[in-house]
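#struct-pred

JT: dropping the chains for the assembly here, can someone run the whole complex?
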Amino acid sequence: MTKNKIKSSSYLFPRPVVLIGANISGKPNFEPLAYVSSVEDKPPLISIASYETHFTNIGIKENGTFSVNTPSEEIIVGTDYCGIVSGKEADKSEVFDVFYGELKTAPMIIKAPLNLECKVIKTLAIKDITGGEIGHELFIGEIVNAYAEEEYLTEGAPDISKINTFTYAMKQYWKVGKPLAKAWEVGKKLMTD
Amino acid sequence: MTKNKIKSSSYLFPRPVVLIGANISGKPNFEPLAYVSSVEDKPPLISIASYETHFTNIGIKENGTFSVNTPSEEIIVGTDYCGIVSGKEADKSEVFDVFYGELKTAPMIIKAPLNLECKVIKTLAIKDITGGEIGHELFIGEIVNAYAEEEYLTEGAPDISKINTFTYAMKQYWKVGKPLAKAWEVGKKLMTD
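RK: done, full complex below.
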């Protein structure tokens, strides 16, 4: 074995890409994020980690709501643009056409194939657990509603092969590849009884 | 717009796949997880959400340590097997050859291209924030060390094009696709000044 110790970093390959939506002073703003994870099924919860200086965080804390929008390749330019330009410097409310759901304050992107409307149920400042001076804020949101157009669904559920989304790694976006094997199935080869 | 309300679920496409390693009563055990996210860079932190009844959780809480192992296609059968069979019913300590780092209690998979050795700095029982009776436990770990063999690195950092890992969606594993566009670059098309 020739394992090298490499720079300690929170490596994860590849990361999903989502656009987080929040209203700031009544106007929609979006930021692309890859620090995102499902954390519970009943009720459905999702966590996002966003750096505390980001404009989006202001809106999430202002309203206690946010949206998680899964982009398609069709909106990759707008997605990336939202990661280059801060809402503090540019009005990003015109980048995407939006709609609102029952929470009223979580802007969702019409052209994104999948939208999750979320209510914050827990906020954790990472610096409070590390003792650092600045850092990410972890927001755990309950998915109050999920939305998708018919063309992205198979039997009522979002179908990744129709969504045409992408992932992130090494300062690049990557296509999702082909199916490789069935989960809870390919491993049966190792079962002895 | 014809957005349908669909079943509320914590959709995220595609999710990364990692193998979480923990020692239980001194023996290594692994579980594949897709509820995983980076949450901080300085210091590097990663979060995992594992259902509280899982065997792995016992070991994480016993030692305050765990490992995050990025699988390659070469170990997809063992990865999936660990998700089918619980360590409560079968001894999974022989599925993979392991090594340990300075924490001594976080077993890491030699054949996994990338290993993160983690110390738990925060544990959050999701049921404590939802009021539910049972649920996932969210563990936030600091990456104390990261390990990879030379063949998976480019200029000292893990290279996704060498790792040959896979993702998870819709009860299947999926290949990582081709590079699509550069991040913080493709979006410049929308900049006006």
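JT: nice. Chain A is about 15% helix and 45% strand. Chain A touches chain B through 105 residues (CB under 8 Å).
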